[in-house]
Amino acid sequence: MAKQAYREEDKALFTSPETIKACLAAFLLPGMGHFLLGRKKKGLILGAVLLLTLILGMLQGGDFFPRTGEGTLRSIGWFLQTGMGLPGLVAHSLIERGSPLNPTYDFGTAYLLIAGMLNWLCVVDTFDIAVGRK
Length: 134
Hints:
Shape: elongated
Order of helices and strands: HHHHHHH
Number of helices: 7
Radius of gyration: 17 Å
Number of strands: 0
Helix content: 55-70%
């Protein structure tokens, strides 16, 4: 695959205030970046699905990984779960630590991870839309 060359005006889009604002909004509120870029229907669908995933993870007794590193995998888990932005921060402050004895603990934790990972992908997608790749 050939390496794509960018013109100077294309490179200016990478750090434009609109791109930064859209990516920050996409991180803080799932779907908001797409909404700000004019893809309102997609933004609403993404936001609803990601929030539903977060809520299902909470209802199943999932657990948030601690910020302090107890190993590389747990640190990666913490990073992925922070992808939910403000809703994840609110959820983290509202729920107690899940109990591994709960039969749905692993599923709930997986849902919380998936919600964060998908929102990170939505942030990347927002960036691609903002710079004109999509």
